[in-house]
User: Fold this.
Amino acid sequence: MDTEYLRTLSDQELAIELAKGNIDRRTLAQVRPDPMARKKVIQLSQNVDLDAENRKAQYEEERRWKYAKESDDADELLAFIEDYPTSTHVGEARRIVNNLKNLTRNRAFAARELAIEIGDFQRNKRLTDEQVENGIKNAIIRRLNNKQITKDDFLNLLKEDNNLINAHTVNTLIQENIIDPSDLSDIGIDDRFIYKLTKNTTPQNYNGEYRPLRKIDWSSTEVYFWGVPSSGKSCAIGAILSAAFSGTMTKSIEPNTASQGYGYMNHLKDVFRQGNIISLVAGTAKTSFYEMGFTLIDNERKRHRITLIDMAGELMQCLYKKDADESQLTDADKEMLETLNSVLVSNRTKSRKMHFFVIEYGVEDREGQVSQDTYLRGAMNYLRSLKIFNNDTDAIFIMISKADKAKTNDIGEFGRYIQSHYKGFFKDLCQICEDYEINGKKLESLAFSLGNVCFQNYCLFDPRSAELVVRTLLDRTPVERSIWGKIFSN
Assistant:
C-alpha cells in the first residue's frame, strides 16, 4: 500500500491492515516512526477480530456494489472496480459500463436525430405554424417517453443552440412540465431571456394600414432589400433604421412622412433598443412591399436622401417559379410581380440604386427539394431579364444575416461559406457587377448580426452591425447640395 495513504489512517485502521497482513512492520515503521506510536498499533493489531473485520469489509463491498449498480453511472462503476479489483462483481461491472457507453452513444445519436427532425419541421413550408410547433413538441415528448433521450440530453441540445426552438414551443414544454425555467438557467441562458419567456412576450406584429406600392415618388438613393421568407431581412432593416435614428452616426435625421411605409418604418425602428432584451418583429404580410424614406444629415452637415425598400420575402419564391415555370402562379404571386414590375420597370425612377441580397447563415437547405443556391439563381435569372441592374445601380451586396450563429468574427469564414453553399448565385451576382460596372466590377459581402438572439424570438440588441451598414450608406450615397434638392454625387 502507498505510504502516503497509510499515514492518513487512524491507529485502529493501521492495526487492522497489520493484522490482515496487508502491511508489515517495516512499512509500519515508515508510517509511524515514533516507537511508542508503533507499539500502540502493534498492540491493537493483536486484538483485531479478523473474522469480524472480513465480514465488515465484505458488507462494505456489497453495499458499494449495490449503490454502483443501481446508479447506472459509469463513473461509479469504474470507481468500484478500482477500489475492489479482486471482487467477484468486477466482470458484471465491466459489462454494465460497456452497455452504458453504448446507451450514451445511442442517446447522443437520438439527440442528433431529434435536432434534425426539428429542423425538418421548421423548413416544411406545407405546414402551418401550429402544425410545425405541435410536430416539434410531439417529437421531443415521444423521444423522452421512449427513453431514447433524457431531459438532460434535450437541454444539452438547447444549450448548444439557444435558437433550436422558438419561445412559444419552449413555453409549451414548460406548461406541460417537460422542463422548468430553472433548467434553462442551469444551462446558462440569460435570466432576462427567461423573464421574457415566462411573460409570454410574443413577436411584434405591424398592424398599421397597408397601401399598395406602385412607384417611388421621392427623389433619393433607393436601397432594395431582397431575401427569402425568414431570412431576417425585415429585422435587419429595423436594426439599420434604429441605428440611423439613434443619432450616434449622424447629426440628425429627417423622416419622409409621405413615404408609403412611414408607419412601418416607425414600427421597425422603435422595436430595436440598444442594451434591451427585445421581442423581434414578426414576418410581414406575404405580398407587402414597404418604402421608407429619410434624410441622413452627417457630421459635416451633408444631406443624404435615402429610401429603404423592404421587398416581400415570398417574392423570391415567386420569381423562382416564374423563371422555372414549375407551377401556376397564384393570385398573390401575380400581385407581387405586378408590384415589382411597377416599381422597378414601368414606373422606374432615375434615382441611384443599391441592392442587398439577404441570406441567413446556416439554412442553405431551407427549401428542401432544391438547393437554395439553385432557388436564388432562378430568382436572379428573372430579375436579370427585367434589366433592373442596368445603368443606375451603384452597389450590390450579399448580406449574411444571423452571422452570430457562425461563432466567429473571421470574415474569411463567411467568404468560404458563400463559396461552399451559394457558389452559383455568388458568380451570377459577380457577373452582373462586371457587366454593369457595379462596385468597381466587384461584388461586396458583409456579415450582419442583431446581437444575442434566444428562442428565435428574443434579442439582446447590439447595434454594431447596423451601424456599419449606416456608415456604408453615408459613404456610398450622393449628397444633396442645391437649394432645389437636386442630388449630386460626392
About this structure: The longest strand covers residues 393-401.
